[in-house]
Specification:
alpha+beta; three-stranded antiparallel sheet; 2 helices; 36% helix; globular
């Protein structure tokens, strides 16, 4: 429960070698549905991940999420066609 609370506060999830040794993954829910049904993610080898690199990945992923969410029709109009 503490990890979920941290994820909500941070705005994205982080998987530090939980699923695959040597890999860190960042996940961002796409917030045009409630509850969210879609997400984007980025995985990076631990050996190449510095705090600066992590900050850049998170910033770019937030930007990508915003761009995707901005392309989705407003609630009540056309449905999302890529599912």
């Amino acid at each position: 429960m503490a990890d979920l609370a941290e994820t909500r506060a941070r705005g994205y999830s982080v998987d530090r070698e939980e699923g695959v040794p040597g890999i860190v993954g960042f996940g961002f829910a796409l917030r045009y549905d409630s509850p969210a049904q879609d997400a984007i993610s980025c995985s990076v080898p631990v050996a190449r991940l510095t705090p600066e690199h992590e900050g850049r990945i998170v910033a770019v992923m937030r930007e990508i999420r915003s761009k995707i969410e901005a392309t989705v029709p407003a609630a009540g109009s056309a449905t999302v066609h890529w599912r």
